[in-house]
């Protein structure tokens, strides 16, 4: 991930509802959630939720899969790992290998 992508991700997460959505989708794991269920869980109107989901998708933080007339959303763990790696790539006084255990622990099989 480069600086511009990281800025897009942080901008997407800097709004309360979008941060809640992202955390909810991380919690949902590989099952993901239908768009309507995300709206219901967070008590947000569907048209407002649609705009927020689009922003998170453009930032590379979530992905979607069409299921008939519905859309299922998932946290994009690759996007999250990319953001965390970007933040830590020059950590520990220029010895990023010292931070590898942290990145390994944050990695999951999602």
UniProtKB/TrEMBL annotation:
It comes from the Bacteria. One of its GO terms (molecular function) is DNA-binding transcription factor activity. Residues 1-95 form the HTH arsR-type domain. PROSITE patterns: HTH_ARSR_2. The keyword GTP-binding does not apply. The keyword Transcription applies. Gene3D superfamilies: Winged helix-like DNA-binding domain superfamily/Winged helix DNA-binding domain. InterPro entries: ArsR-like_HTH (IPR011991), HTH_ArsR_DNA-bd_dom (IPR001845), Metal_resp_trans_reg (IPR051011), WH-like_DNA-bd_sf (IPR036388), WH_DNA-bd_sf (IPR036390). Keywords: DNA-binding, Transcription, Transcription regulation. NCBIfam families: HTH_metalloreg. This is DNA-binding transcriptional ArsR family regulator.
């Amino acid at each position: 991930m480069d600086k511009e992508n990281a800025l897009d991700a942080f901008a997407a997460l800097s709004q309360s509802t979008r941060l809640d959505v992202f955390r909810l989708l991380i919690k949902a794991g590989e099952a993901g959630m239908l768009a309507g269920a995300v709206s219901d869980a967070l008590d947000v109107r569907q048209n407002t939720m649609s705009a927020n989901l689009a922003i998170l998708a453009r930032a590379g933080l979530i992905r979607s899969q069409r299921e008939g007339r519905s859309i299922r959303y998932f946290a994009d763990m690759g996007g999250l790992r990319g953001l965390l790696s970007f933040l830590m790539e020059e950590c520990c006084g220029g010895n990023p290998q010292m931070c590898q255990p942290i990145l390994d622990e944050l990695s999951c099989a999602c």
